Amino acid sequence: MKALVLQKGAKDNDKFKHSIVLSEVPIPTLNPDNDDVLIKLQAAAFNHRDVWIRKGLYPGLQFDSVLGSDGVGIVQATSRAEFSYLAGQQVVINPGFGWEKDPKGPENKYAILGLLPLPGTFAEYIVIPRAEIFPVPEHLSIAEAAALPLAGLTAFRATFTKANVQPGDNVLITGIGGGVALAALNFVSSIGANAYVTSSDESKIKKAIEKLGAKGGINYKEDEWPKKLKALLPNDRPFLDSVIDGAGGEIVSQTMKVLRPGGIISCYGMTSVPSIVYPMFAVLQNIEFRGSTMGSREEFGRMLNFVKERKIKPVIGGIWQGLENAPEIFEIMSKGKQFGKLVIENKLSKL
Ligand SMILES: NC(=O)c1ccc[n+]([C@@H]2O[C@H](COP(=O)([O-])OP(=O)(O)OC[C@H]3O[C@@H](n4cnc5c(N)ncnc54)[C@H](OP(=O)(O)O)[C@@H]3O)[C@@H](O)[C@H]2O)c1
User: Fold this and answer.
1) Cα 52 from chain centroid (whole Å)
2) Are 6 and 17 in contact (CB under 8 A)?
3) Which atom of ligand 1 lies nearest, measured to the CA of 249?
4) What percent of the chain clears pLDDT 90, i.e. is strictly above it?
5) 208 lines ligand 1 (CB under 6 A)
6) Which residue's CA is minimally distant from atom 39 of ligand 1?
7) d(CA 272, CA 70)
8) Upper half-sphere CA count for residue 210 (Cβ side, 13 Å)
9) What residue ranges do the domains of the chain occupy?
């Protein structure tokens, strides 16, 4: 089968530290001792993690890994005969293993698809533990289902488990072009909370307001954007209840004067600067800074039910046919040009 494999070192003119090579690798096989399923992947989606990996900035890099954490496909076979009824079902894969249900964090060693020893979804087939597959919500297309897992789970935990967003809250979501940020915007708006967004791109702010129900937005490249954001808030609730942040750096100092006392900053990533400044003023305001990661299998199941009940559709920034399009997608993502998830559909041959 074809798969995108991480290889050490860059090719000439490559801005990434490590390359991806479209390779011919064996179709994975089922081990009769495990409780696994073989899935023929219909589509896979990209995450910023894939960019960090190629830049050499992700911990635990393993060369020869098949990359990719998001995938949707059709079950072909099961290692245990009693689950053979699953064959033919379309499933979406929980991308993180080792975390069952503890809301505080993983019970076991946690690992994410797309780095060895785990397989990746930028491939035609994958073998996955049966416990990590879930039915695809019926209202989703193949590409939308592929776009959901990692970003949806991260946004769900950051928004509800960590920021405890409630209807009527004012919530700031930073860097709205990102996959996680857009999922958070969908989730926040769907429960009747008021979402405000930041972006480096005015057209993304416009789309977030006009198409996705954001109440307002501000360009984070502008001087004094927090003051301008404060001016957008309604008179009867002139503060933020929480911030869902993927940027890091100065986010506490930037939002602490707009947040209510005891407001929560739920931070799932640090794309701008990989550390946080936490000033004394934030202490005096009782502001809570909470780190948030992907989430447990239990949260993944709840996220899928939430999406299904509210008929939420992930925002898609582009769909390509075939794994050979990966270099173009890495280019777009590394420049932050996308608005929504970037998806590859597989042109599949028969097994
Ligand atoms: N901890 C976890 O488990 C976990 C899970 C998922 C993601 N993450 C991390 O979260 C971050 C976002 O992931 P993603 O997959 O959603 O990324 P993505 O789709 O590549 O989006 C990145 C977005 O970050 C925004 N951005 C860049 N610099 C910014 C800044 N200085 N201030 C505010 N926003 C900025 C840009 O938004 P605009 O285009 O609107 O300017 C860009 O579109 C990454 O760092 C990723 O590694 C962590």
Assistant:
1) 13
2) no
3) 31
4) 95
5) no
6) 177
7) 24
8) 6
9) 2-148+314-345, 152-291
CATH architecture of the domain with range 2-148+314-345? Alpha-Beta Complex (3.90)
Which residue's structure tokens are 């299904």? 308
In the prediction, which pLDDT does 348 show?
A: 64
247 lines ligand 1 (CB under 6 A): yes
Two structure tokens written together for 259:
């947040």
Å from CA of 27 to ligand 1 middle: 33
Tokens 């009782």, located at residue: 286
CA of 137 to the centre of ligand 1 (A): 26
The gap between the terminal CA atoms of the chain, to the nearest Å, is 10
Fold of 152-291: Rossmann fold (3.40.50)
**In whole angstroms, what is the distance from residue 126 CA to residue 199 CA?**
36
- How many of the other CB atoms lie within 10 Å of CB of 192? 10
Confidence of residue 296 (pLDDT cuts 50, 70, 90): very high
